[in-house]
Design a protein that fits this description.
two-stranded antiparallel sheet; 50% helix; 14% strand
Length: 181
């Protein structure tokens, strides 16, 4: 079980989304053919988190959405943001942002509920949000016809850097129109 910390770092680095201790443990068990106690795994994770908190690194390992992920430190967000703008070919439309906001704040919610709030058909927008993995089907409603329920996905949580919908900004926290002008 040499270089176990490096294996853990590689798993975190290679993961597109946050990776849980359970997933790390399963992969390591498959590699080393031995179960690694969660206390040992947590010690390695704590060491890795401390290592990348050093100012020598422009990124850190952060516990987010129940797992671990490499994220850019705030001092470098502007640089990365500019790169993402340059690479961004497909942005979310105003309709997609509105629909995503409704789903985030009202989840789980049916398409009909979203359409009643927005006042327009949302078939295309919901399909695009599903394709981008920002929302997911989270079940079926008990209402007549058993319509699908939509909720935000783990990708949404990772993208916005939150652990749960409870961390979304509340209406009272947002600036009013008079404050913007």
């Amino acid at each position: 079980m040499e270089n176990i910390a490096q294996h853990i770092e590689a798993l975190i680095f290679a993961s597109e989304q946050s990776i849980t201790q359970k997933d790390i443990s399963l992969v390591l068990q498959e590699i080393f053919q031995v179960s690694i106690p969660l206390t040992d795994l947590q010690k390695h994770l704590n060491t890795i988190v401390r290592k990348y908190s050093d100012d020598a690194f422009p990124f850190s390992v952060v516990e987010i959405n129940g797992g671990y992920q490499f994220l850019t430190k705030s001092a470098y967000h502007l640089s990365v943001h500019k790169l993402q703008i340059q690479r961004s070919k497909k942005k979310l439309s105003q309709a997609a942002l509105e629909t995503l906001s409704i789903i985030a704040y009202k989840q789980p919610v049916t398409k009909l509920d979203v359409e009643q709030i927005r006042g327009v058909n949302c078939d295309y927008t919901i399909q695009k949000l599903l394709e981008k993995d920002l929302i997911a089907i989270s079940g079926k409603s008990k209402a007549i016809g058993k319509p699908l329920l939509y909720s935000t996905s783990a990708t949404f949580m990772d993208y916005f850097g939150i652990n749960s919908a409870a961390e979304l900004p509340q209406i009272k926290d947002l600036p009013s129109e008079t404050e913007i002008i």
